[in-house]
Design brief:
The structure is a homodimer of 340-residue chains. Helices cover 42% and strands 15% of the residues of chain A. Chain A is of the alpha/beta class and 340 residues long. The first copy, chain A, has a domain of 204 residues: Rossmann fold, CATH 3.40.50. A 7-stranded mixed β-sheet of chain A has the order 4-3-2-1-5-6-7, sandwiched between helices. In chain A, helix 7 packs across helix 9 and helix 10 crosses helix 11. The longest helix of chain A is centred in the N-terminal third of the chain and has 24 residues. In chain A, 41% of the residues are buried. At the A-B interface, helix 1, helix 9, strand 3, strand 4 and helix 10 of A face helix 1, helix 9, strand 3, strand 4 and helix 10 of B.
Chain lengths: 340, 340
């Protein structure tokens, strides 16, 4: 027996599904800029396991916390942490208001582009530069300075804005995780406010999911005007053990996925790995001198030594940038499949 | 001309809508435990203004940040902050491991229920009690202690679990805001970890949206086991100016709605009110000696004095608990409409 109405309704449904197909096709395969291989496979295997409601490893959406280091993990960090380059540029921009800097280290070295003299000022010099460029202003003013620099400054090697030097494969991973109801966080040594100036636009990570190094601030209310001033006193150094500490303080849940690239991420990975249930811990290994930079055990920036040993001994995912990533930056042409 | 298929499809649509009606009815009028009046009206008027996409006051969902004090705003705070009552109970629970407490203040006073001697130990005594009960253990252990106490302890006046002594009208407000894509935060003087032990279950506020007072913690990794230990060093006192400071540090966006009940909330309200665009700032005024407690300008707990003056002079919403709320606690019988 044939029911013409039912047929017509079925046809309607078919039409609806065919309209939806392009959307589904757009969603496509996750991680298109990753070569097929153990790294890509470990990510997808993990995500499928914790999102399968009938599986033993299922994690409910509210607990799908994923944390990412920023420098060297989501964007490049050579020839120096980009935030340090911002600070050096800020010294130059502010020099006219500080004539004493011409004769005072570390500022003199910055103004004279004297790299050797700058390095000689050591950590004390770096802290003075950060103090002068990151504190003593309102939070609103600092946000303006950071955004202005990010829009104007260009990287010395690529000539690109710094916020273009983000890793396309990691962007795809962030998107993939969010499509699977993960909440993606940055947990990084950079200044929280500096990272917030680009994280939402560049990574799709809102300010409340950016955790970093912070200074003590002071609320002020004068003549009906409210402001928050950044003081020179360090509140939290978000590096090494500071990472699990800030994760606990700010998120209050242990992540089920953590990604870093250096020994400064080791404790965050240990904290993540030590939780109950299935966990993912990954490291970006900078192995691509041609398309990015190659460095690890002896580098001053982003040293990857102890964490690399621990990753190898514990079976953590180590991403070999040269072998695992089809392309590095969004502005790179899509690479064709390479013979490994 | 009549097309029977089209009619049938229309009937199908009508059926679908009728099935959806009970759901719509369930959503119902917002804020049913609030009497009609200026307080309820100011909340609804504000929410409708900032969520109307065609209105001049529209705020996009990502920026709909709402912050609430906890003690005295979301739950009661008499005869003492509930967390202090937890700390006193913890002193008693731990006394067998600390024989020296029998002869040492402030612990001796706690163990002997000597209120006068306890008060005489002053802020120094309170800090010692908090140090002994809130620090020196792992974050996991503290969470266990808080949850155990919350499940077992009973309020001296009502005989109810403390987490039942939450304000039904405020629960409805939290739900209403979330239904309108607000992100609801607690920003309160209590210990962050203590509040997280009940905020998700009781208020529907997840741990990452609970901001409070914090202690410096220390990550430890021994024999493959990771833990975070709470130290005695205060990291942030989330009271008064500490509230806008923590909002800036943790959320990184200025709220568009803030609710408190005491002078300790004044700066959070000032910070919220001073932002651009339409803002809502509210205070719970404890005026109901019969159903809850009545106190304001001279109270040691939850003093509402300067903030009340500022609310009146600036037209902030002041909730008169006795007049504005049909019922106080979820366990109260629903009150009938009262003649004002």
């Amino acid at each position: 027996m044939t029911n013409p109405t039912l047929h017509r309704q079925r046809f309607g449904l078919a039409l609806l599904f065919s309209l939806a197909l392009p959307l589904l096709a757009n969603a496509g395969e996750p991680l298109p800029s990753w070569h097929d291989g153990p790294a890509k496979n470990s990510i997808i295997t993990f995500v499928e396991a914790v999102t399968d409601p009938s599986g033993k490893d299922f994690v409910k959406p509210a607990e799908r916390i994923a944390v990412f280091d920023n420098d060297g993990t989501l964007w490049s960090e050579q020839p120096a942490y980009f935030e340090l380059l911002f600070a050096l540029d800020e010294v130059k921009r502010n020099a006219p208001q500080h004539p004493e800097w011409k004769t005072t280290q570390p500022f003199k070295a910055v103004l004279e582009n004297d790299h050797k003299a700058l390095v000689a000022t050591g950590m004390d010099g770096i802290l003075k530069i950060f103090g002068a460029t990151h504190t003593g202003m309102t939070t609103d003013a600092f946000d303006d300075y950071a955004r202005t620099w990010l829009s104007q400054a260009r990287h010395p090697k690529t000539g690109k804005p710094y916020s273009d030097m983000i890793f396309q494969p990691m962007l795809e991973m962030l998107d993939y995780l969010r499509s699977q109801d993960f909440k993606t966080y940055i947990v990084s040594g950079g200044d929280t406010a500096f990272m917030r100036a680009f994280a939402e636009q560049v990574y799709g990570i809102p300010p409340e999911q950016v955790i970093g190094t912070t200074f003590v601030t002071a609320f002020q209310f004068k003549d009906g005007k409210a402001s928050i001033v950044r003081t020179q006193k360090l509140a939290h150094n978000d590096d090494g053990p500071g990472k699990p500490e800030s994760i606990d303080a700010v998120i209050g849940r242990r992540p089920i996925l953590a990604f870093g690239n250096s020994d400064g991420d080791l404790q965050m990975l240990q904290w993540t790995a030590a939780g109950p249930g299935k966990r993912f811990t990954g490291l970006v290994h900078h192995t691509d001198a041609k398309r990015e930079w190659a460095y690890d055990r002896t580098s001053d920036i982003g040293r990857l030594d102890k964490a690399l040993d621990e990753a190898k001994s514990r079976g953590w995912t180590v991403v070999d940038m040269a072998a695992d990533w089809r392309r590095i930056y969004p502005f790179d042409p899509p690479a064709t499949e390479q013979v490994q």
